[in-house]
Hints:
The chain is mainly α. It has helices at residues 7-21, 37-47, 53-59, 67-80, 85-90, 93-99, 109-122. The radius of gyration is 14 Å and the shape is globular.
Amino acid sequence: PVTDGSRELHSLCAQLEFLLQFDLKEKRSFFGQRKDYWDFLCQGLARRRQEHEGVRFVTCLDKLKTPVGRGRAFLRYCLVHRQQSLQLCLLDPESLREWYYARSPFLSPPHRAEILGSFYELDGV
Length: 125
C-alpha cells in the first residue's frame, strides 16, 4: 500500500509539483505574499464553480502556512480521493495563459493532452 512514507508517493508528488511550478508566472497577493500553484488550482476550481472538499480540507489545516504546503496537501488529497481537480484546472486555456509563461507544457496542446492522459491513468492506481 502507498502511505505518506512511501518513496514512490514523494517522488510522484515532487514531479507533479515541479510540473505545476514550471514556468509559472510570479504573482503576489494583496499583502505581497508570492502566489503558487495552490492559488492557480483554487482559482481554476472557483472559475468552474466547483465546490471542492479538498480545498475546504486543506484550508482548515492550521499547520499549513504557505501556498506550497497547501498545494502539496491538496495534491495528496486528490490522489487519495481520486479527484480529477487537476484535470479540470488544465482544461481552461484562458486561466493557463494567465498563470503560465509560453514554455509551460500546459500551454502546448500535445503536451497538455499527454499530461491529462497521465492524470486520468492515475485514477486507476
